[in-house]
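FORM 12-B: Structure-to-Sequence Request
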């Protein structure tokens, strides 16, 4: 992730690459709690490392994109929050939109409440942070209808949302993440994190 983020943010931002547990070793929402724990650590150690712990952008590809979006849109949902509060003030930079958390296998469940809990689109509300969604037009795993449905829900809720389609890019990683896509993310961060 570092090799993708650092050329975009340069020296203007601090960057942290975090990890989380995956299925089948754990079940949903363990990975969500892992990301919350990482954010808690980043906030608690901001002064020590010299960055602003009140201005955090969440960024992810594939499952990481789903996790960051879910966290950014679901403050106050007890089953997802873990021990952390106040995440809704973060900016969400979203990569590859899932209808549900595929890596945590919620897409196959018969429990509609669990599917709704795991899907960012069901958490859209007027007090959500700005969201940047990017999606490769040649993504073999996710149809374009998935990011479009998230954007539609967020815009309907009055949330500032930007959708950037990366022409010719596939799924995950840094595929196609350069040029106009990189500039668009940097501009978004400068406006909504730095306030420029």
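FORM 12-B RESPONSE
SEQUENCE OUT:
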């Amino acid at each position: 992730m570092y090799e993708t983020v650092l050329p975009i943010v340069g020296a203007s931002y601090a960057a942290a690459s975090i990890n989380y547990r995956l299925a089948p070793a754990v079940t949903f929402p363990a990975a969500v709690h892992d990301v919350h724990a990482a954010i808690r650590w980043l906030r608690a150690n901001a002064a020590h490392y010299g960055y602003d712990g009140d201005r955090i952008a969440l960024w992810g590809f594939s499952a990481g994109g789903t996790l960051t979006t879910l966290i950014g849109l679901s403050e106050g949902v007890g089953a997802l929050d873990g021990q952390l509060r106040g995440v809704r003030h973060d900016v969400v930079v979203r990569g590859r939109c899932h209808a549900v958390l595929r890596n945590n296998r919620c897409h196959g469940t018969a429990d509609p409440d669990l599917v709704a809990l795991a899907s960012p689109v069901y958490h859209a509300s007027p007090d959500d942070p700005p969201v940047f969604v990017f999606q490769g037009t040649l993504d073999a795993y996710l149809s374009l209808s998935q990011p479009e449905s998230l954007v539609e829900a967020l815009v309907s809720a009055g949330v500032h949302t930007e959708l950037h389609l990366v022409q010719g890019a596939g799924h995950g990683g840094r595929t196609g993440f350069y040029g106009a896509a990189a500039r668009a993310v940097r501009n978004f961060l400068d406006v909504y994190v730095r306030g420029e």
